[in-house]
Amino acid sequence: MSDRYSQLVNSPIGSRLAGQLGLPKPAVLRRYQPGAPLLHGPLLLGATSGSTLPPVDGPRGLGALLRGAGIDVTSDAEPDVGRDAAIRPAALVLDATGVATVADLAQVRDFLAGPLRRLLPSGRVIVIGRAPDSADPVADSVRQALDGIVRSLGKELRAGSTANLLAITTALPDEQPASLESALRFLLSGRAAYVDGQPIRLGPGDAPAPADWDQPLAGRVAVVTGAARGIGAAIARVLARDGAHVVAADLPAAGEALARVTNKINGTALQLDIAAADAPRILLEHLAARHGGVDIVVHNAGVTRDKLLANMKPEQWELVLEVNLASQLRINSALLAGQALHHGGRVITLSSTTGFAGNRGQTNYGASKAGVIGMVRSYAAAFAGHGATINGVAPGLIDTDMINTMPLATREVARRLNSLQQAGLPVDVAEAIAWLSSSGAGGVNGQVIRVCGQNLVGA
Amino acid sequence: MAARRAAVVGGNRIPFARSNGPYAHASNQDMLTAALDGLAARFNLQDERLGEVAAGAVLKRSRDFNLTRESVLGSALAATTPAYDVQQACGTGLETAILISNKIALGQIESGIAGGVDTTSDAPIEVNDDLRQVLLDANRARSLAARAKLLTRLRPNFLVPSIPRNAEPRTGLAMGDHQAITTEEWDISREAQDELAASSHHNLAAAYERGFFADLMTPFLKLTRDQNLRPDTSVDKLAGLKPAFGDRETGTMTAGNSTPLTDGAATVLLASDEWAAERSLPVLAHLVDAETAAVDYVHGDRKADGLLMAPIYALPRLLARNKLTLQDFDFYEIHEAFASTVLTTLAAWADGDFCRRYLGLAEPLGELDRGRLNVNGSSLAAGHPFAATGGRIVATLAKLLHEKGSGRGLISICAAGGQGVVAILEA
Question: What ipTM did this prediction achieve?
Fold first, then answer.
């Protein structure tokens, strides 16, 4: 299930040919390797006037924060540095929380335009702004405009670079966003390789930094459903890599693969049908008795039964909705009613671009994937009341067994319908989930983050 | 000042397959390793050094001399876990549980795994014995001339390999034929045997339906449940089968009320209560006591010393030592080598004359409640990979007792060679 076209086009001959013929040339993306530096080059940092974050060059500013992460930070405030043609930045980070008028947007242009051509491959552009808050229509429209800038930029960047927006919802400057550092570290790193053109809202919350940024989930217990293969197995592996003890759950019939995945990550295998009526009870009893509760719950288990609605049988409809949606609602309800979920808990569900855009033959799947979006938004307050968060991750086209069932031509075209011109890997989805699972992401709640390479579908 | 008792923490087996079926190319080591890996995954035992692992196989290849140790080395368990092989025919699986439990009880180890595996598909075929002798002599020969002379001893029929036979070495009779003698002597009816067989299938099917095996079994090579299970068998369907052992006209033992040849493996995790508590692992039941017995089936009495009757003799000693009666149990797990084996056992315990003459008891042990017998099915339905059955039964019974909350269970397993093992679990 590898992207042969991408391999071909990145070879010396293929590369020249593709260039001459004007064919798409997907870049090889920079992905996270334990021990590697967070960023592969210097970071250019700037701020528009009127910023409501601590001054970028001050002791509590973004500059200090990013340098603390081992990044070589160059501030735009230093004379001529931003225009220095010799420096090729790996990332451009702009504090645009101060934009309030249309004219202010020109500062965004001024900061970004110059260095864009020199951005290293797999580079990052991150704009930090304030989310519209209905207080002032002019300011709100300008803040929303940042979204348009970032999305358009995402479609212009080359060589695997991405652009994303952090939209702060807290009442700056009095209420600083809880997860700014955590979000920046995530987006700048190879973990966010397939996150592109996305606005991520940062709100209030309990978001302590982990003791070790390389083992952010150390000491935590995570349960992943559908962990025997595919994206679920990747999630289990990444959470374990980040330090969690993983309870890998799947159907008894998938037990052979489940045991293999579990043993590789020193986890615990739990065979159960999460759609069964007694599944919440069995799951929570297991978590309480064997692991003293749970910190992270990943609702990954899901099935498809694709059929045009006119031809769909009731069983196909019911199965998909039971497994993909109803079971999650029951488990979430049980988590809130009981004591199993620790303070600082994290619940993450898997949605899909289909949940936003629908898909032919997937009225049942689309219902369930849109349903979990509604679930995440609606449950946010209740989980916040427990000192926890609930979020979703919506994968775009990911290289799994599932897409190998698509006809060749359809599949190859589908791979190119995003700004990064390639399908993502299961690990990309897993990294986003691992980030949302971390203690530092406590300011992110009730959101569904797309991991889709800025897919055109439903964007 | 009783020694502490070993706790049954849980078990893992693979589904049992019919001979030459899904597991036709799986070796004993493959299957035992798979069962161990599923157990490790379930109880988070990766890289854990356990006290030891005891397992075995009845039909074993010569290269598998260290079968259990090699399986441990190939599994997710720590390589510093010692292991050894045990062989007591079909009693192996229960005997290994007793051995591990005894070391735990004595405080020599804190944790261990008992198990068993057998394949009748991946048979240990040997070179024809006459050919083997010639080859060994050739190896010993000192000169080329001497070796050449040995070649003249070769005969075409030496090419016929030596295949393991399911027969007792001293009688030449297959186990089924031995049981047919016992069945006839005790006058066990065809109906009673078929009823017991049908119950076994129905009970096993019901157990699968309610998810009983979700935490006792890990699929292997795409098999997710015991292949021999026939949920919709019936006494009527079984009545149509032809006799397979004994007299081919009047015999009552058929393929339906005898266990088929099967492949599979089973493991059980045993530990001290402290070891389990340290790891937040459940304690399902404790292994309280056990007893073995043997009968002189070669020269003894045709009715009283049947090949598969040894457990009958073991039980009274076990009951006496524990001051219990046959009725003091909530569950009975009697291995269904053949339906008539179980029925003979029950008949003997209830027979005052037999108990007086052969068991030295003033009163018969009595009847047991058939509603408590093999309630989740047994070997006739699940199949019987010889050394794996003990582990299957121990894990099943421990979970039954745990589900009930408290209680006592009896295990009885007969074995080739005229031996038997019985044990008591308590929750």
Answer: 0.92
